[in-house]
């Protein structure tokens, strides 16, 4: 059996590497709370590469406009058909921002139009229980970005499982710190990442 | 001393008496029941049903020679058997092809029908169901064909000869319990079985004392489950329940570290060896099972049967245990087959897992075998024995010469009596 490897998507347009500390932080969280065998470091996988299919959960973020190359779009469609889950987070936390507008357009062309996930979605109870839906981020509460608290995530499902999870909550900023600094937090704000990983591994 | 005239009258009386005797014999023969004359009849399969009625009605038929120019139906064979038991010698000749057809269904929720056909030499056999042609094969040494759907009976036809069989109904399957840690293998095994129509329940430990599980997975018994799939050592705490489940007729598929669990190890047909990495893939390569990492299996029981072997070692071993069956799998990370197996990867991975789980699932119905006229030549031989040449002499009904003889004698007596009276001048 192989370890779980956290993979970050590299795409041809935009700034795919805008949250470089997120992988290490999530890996730390997975190791801290679960018995999942997790690789100590993440990988970067180009969306157009066949290597994408080695990582059934891939994280994608950025601030800048997103335009998928045809090979990236085709690869992502096959990835979804075979059982992969793409987790996309808007690093701008701004629904008027260029990332949100272009990414949702591209993702709609690739997967279909994302729809809001109900608070009862299994994602919110796959490990920790988030009865109020997705946890808020400090960026939302501080009024940054679009000055909105987004109460839901959105996604595209096939055969009862998510193939695309889209977040406007800017978890990329929220989780983009060195794992050592978790000790300064009264409440670990990366717990929801465990739910995403456990959901991907069990659904 | 009688005079010549008296002798003539006496002679005339004798002739009249002889005439009366002849007429009496003729009358007696006409009133006597017809005496059977034993005959032999020849017919062919295509004309048999028309002829059999007359053969059965006639007591004169002593033997029937059947020229087999088409497959006799079960009813026709039964009629011939009835004739034979009624004292009629039944022989048959011809060279029908040794066609045989069997239909089976795997123990899977959406099982395709599998047609096993043999016979026919180099000739083409047409496989036909009630809706039309399914396929054509040359099956001198046997052929197997999968059919997604079958309408009514299936016939394997070669010219006028045919074997037929009826597809067994699909069985209602019970749930499969998947036990494995939270990793890609567990996820994609569940996904494959789910897509194949199995009702999948799972218990997936994600942290100490934290399981991701379906509600109410216990008790583990054959009334609720068909098969348990144990993918790693996380099944250890349920080992005794699994052993009992298999003894009662349930199936077990075990892979990797699950084969090392104490109680399951005593049940398992094989042990898993050290992991050997799969083939290194180039950019556009597609993964097939032979490219997967393998933990080669070593047979642990004398009754274990090796089912599959790759270059890196044995990958599938099975055995019966109690009323159930156990299958050991040596592939590691079969999920890579689905994700990296190209366009056909997901379907191939799904069908493989469904097939392996179905292989150890218990048979719920009394019989999984199909019915029909599956081997008509064998049935014909069982009913009538080996073929034999037809009787060369084709016997005709014998003519009865007695009426002619009686007619001649009566005519002679009458003419002699009339002539005698004319010569002596009597009226």
What this model shows, in words?
- The complex is a heterodimer of chains A (203) and B (427).
- Chain A is an alpha/beta fold.
- Chain A has helices at 22-33, 70-82, 98-111, 138-141, 171-174, 191-202; strands at residues 7-10, 43-46, 57-62, 85-90, 115-116, 154-158, 161-167.
- In chain A, strands 2-1-3-4-7-6-5 form a 7-stranded mixed beta sheet.
- In chain A, α1 crosses α6.
- Chain B contains 10 helices and 20 strands.
- In chain B, a hairpin with a 2-residue loop joins β19 and β20.
- At the A-B interface, α6 of A face α4, β12 and α7 of B.
Question: What class would the helix/strand composition of chain B place it in?
Answer: alpha/beta
Sketch the topology of chain B as an H/E string, one letter per element.
Answer: HEHEHEEEEEEEEEHEEEHEHEEEEEHHHH
Give the C-alpha Rg of chain A: 16 Å
Unreliable residue stretches of chain B? 392-397
Q: Separation of termini of chain A?
A: 18 Å
Percentage of residues in DSSP E strands of chain A: 15-25%
Mean pLDDT reading of chain A: 94
Helix content of chain A: 25-40%
Widest beta sheet: strand line-up of chain B = 13-12-11-14-15-20-19-18
Apparent shape of chain B: rod-shaped
Q: Looking at the chains present, what oligomeric state does this protein adopt?
A: heterodimer
Radius of gyration of chain B, in angstroms, nearest whole number: 40 Å
User: Uncertain runs of chain A with pLDDT below 50, 5 residues or more?
Assistant: none
Main β-sheet of chain B, in a few words? 8 strands, mixed
Number of DSSP strand runs of chain A: 7
């Amino acid at each position: 059996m192989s370890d779980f490897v956290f993979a970050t998507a590299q795409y041809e347009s935009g700034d795919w590497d805008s949250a470089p500390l997120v992988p290490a932080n999530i890996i730390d969280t997975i190791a801290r709370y679960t018995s999942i065998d997790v690789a100590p470091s993440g990988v970067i996988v180009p969306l157009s590469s066949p290597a994408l299919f080695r990582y059934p959960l891939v994280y994608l973020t950025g601030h800048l406009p997103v335009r998928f190359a045809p090979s990236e779009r085709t690869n992502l469609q096959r990835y979804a058909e075979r059982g992969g889950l793409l987790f996309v987070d808007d690093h701008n936390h701004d629904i008027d921002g260029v990332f949100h507008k272009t990414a949702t357009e591209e993702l709609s062309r690739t997967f279909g139009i994302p729809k809001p996930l109900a608070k009862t979605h299994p994602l919110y109870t796959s490990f920790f229980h988030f009865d109020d839906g997705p946890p808020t981020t400090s960026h939302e509460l501080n009024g940054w970005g679009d000055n909105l608290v987004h109460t839901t995530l959105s996604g595209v499902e096939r055969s009862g499982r998510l193939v695309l999870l889209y977040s406007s909550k800017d978890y990329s900023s929220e989780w983009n710190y060195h794992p050592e600094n978790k000790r300064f937090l009264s409440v670990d704000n990366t717990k929801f990442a465990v739910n995403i990983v456990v959901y991907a591994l069990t659904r | 001393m009688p005079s010549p005239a008296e002798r003539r009258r006496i002679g005339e009386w004798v002739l009249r008496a002889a005439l009366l005797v002849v007429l009496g014999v003729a009358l007696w023969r006409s009133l006597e029941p017809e005496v059977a004359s034993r005959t032999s009849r020849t017919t062919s399969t295509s004309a048999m049903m028309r002829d059999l009625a007359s053969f059965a009605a006639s007591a004169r038929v002593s033997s029937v020679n059947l020229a087999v120019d088409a497959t006799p139906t079960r009813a026709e064979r039964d009629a011939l058997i009835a004739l034979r038991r009624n004292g009629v010698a039944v022989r048959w000749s011809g060279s029908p092809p040794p066609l045989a057809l069997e239909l089976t269904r795997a123990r899977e929720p959406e099982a395709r029908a599998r047609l096993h056909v043999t016979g026919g030499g180099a000739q083409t056999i047409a496989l036909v169901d009630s809706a039309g042609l399914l396929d054509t094969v040359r099956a001198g040494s046997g052929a197997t064909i999968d059919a997604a759907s079958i309408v009514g009976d299936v016939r394997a036809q070669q010219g006028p000869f045919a074997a037929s069989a009826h597809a067994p109904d699909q069985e209602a399957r019970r749930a499969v319990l998947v036990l494995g840690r939270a990793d890609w293998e567990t996820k994609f095994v569940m996904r494959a079985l789910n897509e194949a129509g199995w009702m999948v329940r799972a218990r997936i430990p994600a942290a100490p004392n934290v399981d991701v599980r379906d509600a109410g997975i216990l008790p583990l018994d054959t009334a609720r489950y068909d098969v348990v799939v144990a993918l790693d050592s996380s099944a250890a705490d349920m080992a005794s329940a699994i052993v009992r489940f298999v003894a009662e007729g349930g199936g077990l598929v075990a892979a990797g570290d699950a084969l090392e669990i104490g109680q399951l190890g005593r049940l398992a047909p094989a042990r898993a060896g050290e992991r050997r990495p799969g083939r290194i893939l180039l950019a556009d390569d597609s993964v097939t099972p032979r490219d997967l990492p393998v933990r080669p299996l070593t047979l642990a029981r004398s009754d274990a049967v090796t089912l599959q072997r790759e270059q890196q070692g044995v990958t599938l071993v099975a055995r019966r245990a109690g009323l159930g069956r156990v299958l050991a799998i040596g592939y590691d990370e079969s999920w890579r087959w689905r994700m990296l197996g190209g366009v056909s990867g997901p379907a191939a991975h799904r069908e493989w897992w469904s097939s392996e789980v179905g292989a150890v699932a218990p048979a719920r119905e009394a019989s999984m075998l199909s019915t029909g006229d599956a081997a008509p030549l064998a049935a014909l031989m069982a009913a009538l024995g080996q073929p034999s040449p037809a009787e060369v002499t084709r016997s005709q009904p014998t003519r009865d010469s007695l009426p002619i003889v009686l007619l001649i004698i009566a005519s002679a007596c009458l003419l002699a009596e009339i002539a005698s009276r004319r010569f002596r001048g009597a009226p």
